[in-house]
């Protein structure tokens, strides 16, 4: 037939091409079918191919007319195609090359420090599509891929948020590929989002760039937790927050880990910003759908922080100053280049720096004289608030430390964290001389009242990894954590029952609690890499001891409880690519809760079809359990209270189903997800559900409910669209979150307090100059449920809508070896009065003297305009 291989036939074909002028030929991502037709016109050869073989493929090449066939053959070979030449029949035949399966493995490191880069992205082109994988928490990657039989090299594009991407050519048979990335001038942590049912590809870094802590800093200190509100799965975050509501879950269903250890209070100053120095963090993994089985994964997802390893080349320092805090970080190599160290500290300046609005911010967080809607006409403004604010004080700090030792086959990391907050507000309030059993007295008197809160968190972690071979790794985590919190408010608002479901009245009275927790944790895992993926097996042991004391007007004597538990878990997981069109994460975690000898099974499956290329679809299923619960007081922004499931109580359980699709036309990214969640045995404090109090014996019952049900259904849309030099992001969620309890509203479903049916968020990043950018963030949401309507049918079911525009201006300037970063932020630029919640307020009413005390419902507003500034110097 006269068919010869391209390499042998090219010399003969060049004789034919001698008469053709060496004109330049360029194609950039041109349709392959079009290129083949033009090659036929240029050469006079017929080009034969199967339509299915070239459909949807594009090709790029740059050559001359004389070398067109040679360049075409090379370009086709990169896509697994072979070009054969039939000189006798003057034909070019495009066929599919014979293929083989190979395993690619290696690691990604920081070029300066030598530290591993967790969750780095490794991508390559194969079969006209972008494929790839994601490194693990140790910066190691492993993937199985199919390549043409004679292909010996592969071009990898390795990227990591905050580092300069690098393209390298590696040998297919290389056993230990090491890619080193050079860091950019910014050092804020990368956030890897694993949540969408169709997003388990580990290739496209567009979603990682969506979460940028540096552009979410309206209060002066950047942080990853607040930056997560860019995702439609995360509920709208107002100025102050007790935590994140993820796909309908309560805030206690959201777990935050630092180097494998839990942090029980993850924010400073009532949720304004993270309790971590962003300069000291290396990477963040956010799992809100199906998490790997190495995480216990409560209902609301897991946010896993990693402390950054120190520099290995020389001593580096980072200093920062904002309107609320000062911070310093030092890092450098250990003697003999055997590792590195890092220390970082941050301390509040809010008590020393008289920045406009700082004092009001503290009072607002302590729920003292928050701004409200106008009072009713019968309440006189001059006397209605009945409160005179006194001195206010607040402070916080956090410390980070990291020590890294490693060799070729092992790595040892020791890290520690300590953080604390305290705040207090003195005031005088005009109140009646009431008792819990009697009506409001008309004889008022001024009484000193105070609100005080504090918390402290400590964590220590030792992580060791040892590679028995290139495909077998042992990983050990040992750690301990301690947490304590106190809260006291002399004028806490109670809703009390008068012996009938139709009779409720209000009182201001003291409320206080103290909570302490100690935890020890050991975890052992082994990873086995195979051609198709990675198997993980392991076990975890957790010992927890805690105490809780509460003083409440609902009880004659303090409530005291002490709890101890031993929890042993086992887990197994497979993650890989069993087929080029299929990516799979499948595993199970077995919980054994020693208190009560409870045994629970937590299965998880995350399947993605066609993970590479223009489109992908996926489905995720899981069941998760929660044995440790955080009681939050919705509108007080108090410190958290942590309690354990008792021996006769079932743990909180959630069944999760989600479906997703993703489209990637060009640089546009579009994601659509639908989910359904069913939750049982949720915990709520009794002061959050006053309707329930009439059915309980307050002296014998626990001060919390443990058998609340909930269901959440939602649709989420996310769009990333470059607009020339600009970049726009649009997120929308349509969701319904409902709860019920047999003793509340006759067992009927009612909206959760955080249920906002429609939520829209839009971001626009505008580059201004080299190193300068403006970030605009617009939030809009339908009104939150009006909890006052539960006891007053005349009240509207929902509050007014929420609109807010935040602005962050960022600029970077290099001066020799140092780099200066300046960040200006404004929260709620237009100072809109956004309804947060509705609650009764104590007022004096009546058209004439003597006036009487009464409670009238008012809307409490979110924070108004807040300006901030931050300077960071790196050298």
Automatic annotation (TrEMBL):
One Gene Ontology molecular-function label: siderophore uptake transmembrane transporter activity
Main location: membrane
Topology with respect to the bilayer: Multi-pass membrane protein
GO cellular component annotations of the record: cell outer membrane
An individual GO BP term: siderophore transmembrane transport
Keyword hit for Transport: yes
Keywords: Cell outer membrane, Membrane, Receptor, Signal, Transmembrane, Transmembrane beta strand, Transport
InterPro entries noted in UniProt: Beta-barrel_TonB_sf, CarboxyPept-like_regulatory, TonB-dep_rcpt-like
Annotated compartments: Cell outer membrane
Protein name per its UniProtKB record: TonB-dependent receptor
